[in-house]
Amino acid sequence: MTRNPRAAALVAAGAAVALTLAGCGSGAGGGSTGEVVSGGTFTVALNDDPGSLSPLTGVSLVQRGLVRYGYESLAYITADGEIVPWLAESWQETPTSITYTLKQGITCADDTRFTAETAAANVAYQADPAHGTFWHGSNITAGMTATADGATLTITSPEPNPFLLASTGAVEMVCQAGLDDPESLADATNGTALYSLTAAMPGSSYTYTKRDGYTWGPQGVTSDTPGLPDQIVGRVVTDEATAANLLLADELNAASIAGADRKRIEAAGLESVGVLNPIGEMLFNERPDRPTSDERVRRALTLALDRAAVGELVTDGEPEESVSLVNKTPLTCVAGGPLWQLPATDVAAAGALLDEAGWVRGPDGQRSRDGRPLTIRFLYDGGTPSHAAAAEEVQQEWNALGITTELVAEDPAGWSSDLYQSYNWDTGFIQITPGSPVVLSLFFLGETSENGGYNFMAVENPEYEALARQAFTAPSAEAACGLWQQAERELIERVDVFPVAETETPTYMSRATFEMPGAITPTSIRMLG
């Protein structure tokens, strides 16, 4: 089996904002009184259509955000990174197992009971490599098993795993009918969530309606908690300026705005939740037929860049230094890092590396090898306002070195085609957004996407792989994090990834407040009058 276009939007630059650091305030905009009011409709802008809604296989950031409206996990990770009960009321861990005790009275969208047996079936489904699920190989590994006894669920790992709670606790649980017919989840929901999908208009909107009798929410939330909306509508708005206009006109309650429209929204007094966005991260196609398969070429490309200039443009004047390739809550193994350091610009060294690799300048100043010009196909997101200007700066800097730089402004179809079908790309503003180094490893270990894996870049980094294998079975979280940070350094030093700059992208709130640990949590939404 192959995953092909499913993963494209996850790594596509600007596909969605998904990473929360901290709330910037809980005030209201749009003329609200700030008083909590129950009922009504909460409308959030989606900057792309999610396609399939399945929590089992979908990986686009927009899609993963909508998964939260229909499905829940055993544990809840707060915006501060704290792990608290959700479907499970408590748990006990050993180095190789974790036992959850489920809350009483949990029901599914189809009115069936959600039991420990159903939870165990979820783990078994995710652990089977033939299913190719989103969490397989990271949070749920092939060797994991699960058993149920009354209200208790025990998940066992064949090897020590210092992150069993954070990993298994985050997996969204599907009700039994959904596991029995996974294809039914593409355009319907069947989970335990407070909301369930009641209408879907692809390319336009997705409507979720609040269920009655919900009593098991995180931090005591029930169907009767004051301030909850009756409906949540995800409205597809692909243009940021349009989203900003709708937000200011009280037609949206939430929208993520990365570009210049931020200024007029902030001038209107709307507050936001801060979201970390690795907007300038660059990945490389390392397949043998691409010039970027040569480490010397990759290194030359990065050395030739004025990182400060590109970072200023790609972040729209709000650059922040990257401190880890892990950039999503709960930010596992980020503290104390990084162990890597990015090199300073050195155009002369870049030229020498290209010469060494056989890409030499001709009489016209352009580099070629064996009669073939050095052409780099650079992808960027056509829907992210700051990407075009930054890409043009990259083109100018590389052209000065004798490199022909072909800029490609991608839309969702283009990302899928280039990254997962034709593999016709070399580098670009292409990001991945993991919350742990285990999830990060999915993209740098194992099979390429042609063979059903997530390694769409075709990276082969033996030093990284050796350290990652050790980290998987480290005796403690501290030891594992040390190994993961060493492994991350290997990715930077081999130039498998180049984090130019990141920024904090705000998700603005109008007439509502919410928490956003990775994506908006529906049980945290409170409507304001």
Quick overview:
The protein has 529 residues and is α+β, with helices and mostly antiparallel strands. The protein folds into three domains: 23-63 and 193-276 and 505-529, D-Maltodextrin-Binding Protein, domain 2; 72-189, Dipeptide-binding Protein, Domain 1 (Dipeptide-binding Protein, domain 1, Alpha-Beta Complex); 281-501, Dipeptide-binding Protein, domain 3 (Roll). Helices cover 26% and strands 22% of the residues.
Mean of residue pLDDT values: 90
Rough outline: globular
Compute the number of helices. Answer: 15
Uncertain spans:
1-31
CATH superfamily of the largest domain: Dipeptide-binding Protein, Domain 3
Number of strands: 26
Count the domains. 3
Proportion of residues in β-strands = 15-25%
By CATH, the topology of the largest domain is Dipeptide-binding Protein, domain 3
Derived from helix and strand composition plus strand pairing, the structural class reads alpha+beta
**CATH class categorisation of the largest domain:** Alpha Beta
Spatial extent as radius of gyration = 23 Å
- Give, in spatial order, the strands making up the sheet with the most strands: 21-20-22-16-23
Helix content: 25-40%
- Give a short account of the largest sheet: 5 strands, mixed
Describe what this molecule looks like in 3D.
- With 529 residues, the protein is an alpha+beta fold.
- It folds into 3 domains: 23-63 and 193-276 and 505-529, 3-Layer(aba) Sandwich (D-Maltodextrin-Binding Protein, domain 2); 72-189, Dipeptide-binding Protein, domain 1, CATH 3.90.76.10; 281-501, Dipeptide-binding Protein, domain 3 (Roll).
- The chain contains 15 helices and 26 strands.
- A 5-stranded mixed sheet has the order 21-20-22-16-23. The chain has a 4-stranded antiparallel sheet with strand order 1-15-24-14. A 4-stranded mixed sheet has the order 2-13-12-11, covered by helices on one side.
- β11 and β12 form a beta hairpin.
- α8 packs antiparallel against α10 and α9 (307-314) runs antiparallel to α11 (385-399).
- The radius of gyration is 23 Å and the shape is globular.
